[in-house]
Every structure is written in structure tokens, then in C-alpha cells.
Specification:
Number of strands: 12
Structural class: alpha+beta
Order of helices and strands: HEEHEHEHHHEEEHHHEHHHEHEEE
Strand content: 15-25%
Radius of gyration: 22 Å
Helix content: 25-40%
């Protein structure tokens, strides 16, 4: 059975496309063929890929005869759904965790993938394998990039280009100037709303928070610690204040602003900057912002050497095989 899952994992790598948050819940239970044995139940984290997983499961069953069931958790419910399903007799055989933090809750369930073909196929396992001691607990299944998505046409209308912004000071000057002239420029704000609704707050509690932690780790030559010193927390506050004070809404309104609203504000040309990642493309394409006018630049927080900074790229999503499953 574990060999069957390893084969499925290898095939699944072909589907590592995009990521993000959605609202869809999809389920499929294809009929088992005659040549296969066992069964795979995958609890999927990404609603935006639900239909692709269903199609892949069907094709895998047709080719191998092994039954594959795919259930996609509704947005923001994955952890609670996983906990509920793990307690059932028919628990997921394939699930996902969000990096080292997520692994802490599920490390006792993770089958060691160190001897599998999919692990051997990794060119840089130190970047794409999630370790639990000497064991390989998970394999990264999506590589994503995030930063400040920007509207090139609106930025140029305001008299700027991406090349003009290489630091927090540059970003601050540009954003505050756009905010001061927002009516003349035909926008509601320099930045989209920094919503603290659960559909939006993860952009700032995790993604934005990575920047000060990254620079602290870099300065201290650190790779892991149980507690940060907070060297760049003031920088974190500064970029957050910049978002709040130069947005499409008042700071007092962020408690109710959602992720969909922020995406719509950018898609409709109401804001120049939108902090998010490559997975957001489906939400902003096809509206008033043309594809050729969509760009992405690094998030600048005023840290040393940030003029050489690239976009944040990596994975926080890892496939794991349930070693307690049949």
C-alpha cells in the first residue's frame, strides 16, 4: 500500500501548480478497477485545485485500478477537517502539513519517505523535504512566490516605475505620494485593504512576518530558533503602518475587510499595490487590469541590503503519508 501511495505521489508532482485560499469543497470516489488493490484517500488543502485533483484521481484509477478518493476541505477549515477525519476508521492516507509548525501536530502520523522514489527525485532535498529528525516526514508539492503585486499602468501614471523602488524609503515615498494624489490618479488608495478577516489576515500574520524573521536569521546566521529576538520588529511595524495609512479604506475598517475585497480592489484598478502571491492570479485576471500591466516586486521593510532582495519564493505545503493508515 505504501508503494502505491509513493507512485501516486510521483504522479501528483505533475500537478504542483498554484496555491491560495478558496471556498470550494469537492469530492470524488472513483470505482476501483480490476487490477489494483488497496485504496488511497487524499485530503486536499487547495480548493483552487480541487477539479484537477478529481481528474487526476480518475485517471490514476483508470491506469492502475487502485481506487483514489479526493476530498477538498473548505477554505480555512483544513486543520479541523484533518483532525476530525484522522479519528475515523477510514482516515486519510495522504494529507498535508504547513511546514515545521504544522508538522508538530502530525509528526507521529508521518510515514518516513526517505526511501521512496519521489524523495530520490529531489535535486535539492534540503530545500524540498520536511524532516522529522532523520526521517523525511513530507515532500513539498508546490513552489510559490509572493511580494507586492503592482499595477504597472497606474504606477507609471503616478510618475514611477518598479526600478524606482529598491528600498522601504522608496516604497514609502511612492505610496504616500500616490495616496496624497489618489483622486487625481483615479484610485482609492496606494494599497488594497489590509483586511484582518480570516480570509485575508494570513497575508500579514505569516507572509509579511517572514521578512523580519528572515533578516534576523540572516544577521545571526541562524536557521531555526524557538524564540526570535525581534531585531526587525520595528521594521515590521513600519511596513504595516504604511499599508494601513495608505490604503483603500480607513484603518478602523480593516476588521471586516476580506481577502476577496482586496483582490477585487486591485483587479478593478482601485489600488496600485496588493500584497499577495502567484496564486492570486485567478482572482485578478480578466478585469480592468491587463495581464501585461501586472507585475510583482519584493516587499521592502528597511532592512540592510534589501536593495538586492528578490521575491519570496519557496514552499510551506508538504505532502505526508499516514503511517497509521491500513
Amino acid at each position: 500500500m505504501k508503494k502505491t501511495i509513493a507512485l501516486l505521489l510521483s504522479l501528483c508532482m505533475l500537478l504542483a501548480l498554484c496555491a491560495g485560499c478558496g471556498t470550494k469543497k469537492t469530492e470524488t470516489s472513483p470505482s476501483a478497477g480490476t487490477s489494483g488493490s488497496g485504496k488511497v484517500f487524499y485530503l486536499n488543502f487547495k480548493p483552487e485545485q480541487a477539479d484537477q485533483w478529481v481528474a487526476l484521481a480518475k485517471k490514476y484509477t483508470e491506469e492502475t485500478g487502485t481506487e483514489v478518493s479526493v476530498i477538498t476541505a473548505a477554505s480555512n477549515t483544513y486543520e479541523s477537517t484533518l483532525k476530525a477525519d484522522m479519528s475515523k476508521s477510514d482516515a486519510p492516507t495522504l494529507f498535508q502539513v504547513n511546514g515545521p509548525v504544522g508538522l508538530e501536530s502530525w509528526k507521529n502520523y508521518c510515514y518516513d519517505l526517505s526511501g521512496t522514489d519521489i524523495y530520490k527525485q529531489l535535486k535539492t532535498p534540503e530545500n524540498f523535504a520536511l524532516k522529522n529528525g532523520n526521517e523525511v516526514a513530507g515532500i513539498a508539492y508546490v513552489i510559490e512566490t509572493y511580494g507586492l503585486i503592482y499595477n504597472k499602468a497606474l504606477l507609471e501614471k503616478a510618475g514611477y516605475k518598479a526600478a524606482d523602488i529598491k528600498s522601504f524609503a522608496d516604497l514609502k515615498k511612492c505610496a504616500e505620494d500616490i495616496q496624497a494624489r489618489k483622486d487625481a490618479l483615479g484610485v482609492k488608495g496606494a494599497f488594497t485593504s489590509a483586511g484582518m478577516d480570516s480570509s485575508s489576515d494570513w497575508r500579514f500574520k505569516t507572509h509579511l512576518a517572514n521578512l523580519p524573521i528572515y533578516y534576523e536569521y540572516k544577521a545571526d546566521n541562524e536557521t531555526s530558533t524557538k524564540a526570535i529576538k525581534g531585531t526587525y520588529l520595528e521594521n515590521y511595524k513600519n511596513i504595516w503602518d504604511l499599508y494601513l495609512n495608505n490604503a483603500t479604506c480607513k484603518p478602523t475598517e480593516i476588521g471586516s475587510k476580506t481577502g476577496d475585497e482586496a483582490a477585487a480592489e486591485f483587479a478593478q484598478g482601485q489600488a496600485v499595490f496588493y500584497q499577495n502571491g502567484t496564486w492570486a492570479y485567478d482572482q485578478i485576471k480578466g478585469y480592468s487590469v491587463k495581464d501585461e500591466d501586472i507585475g510583482m516586486m519584493p516587499i521592502y521593510i528597511g532592512a540592510p541590503g534589501e536593495e538586492n532582495q528578490g521575491l519570496c519564493t519557496g514552499s510551506e505545503n508538504y505532502w505526508c503519508v499516514n503511517k497509521k493508515a491500513s
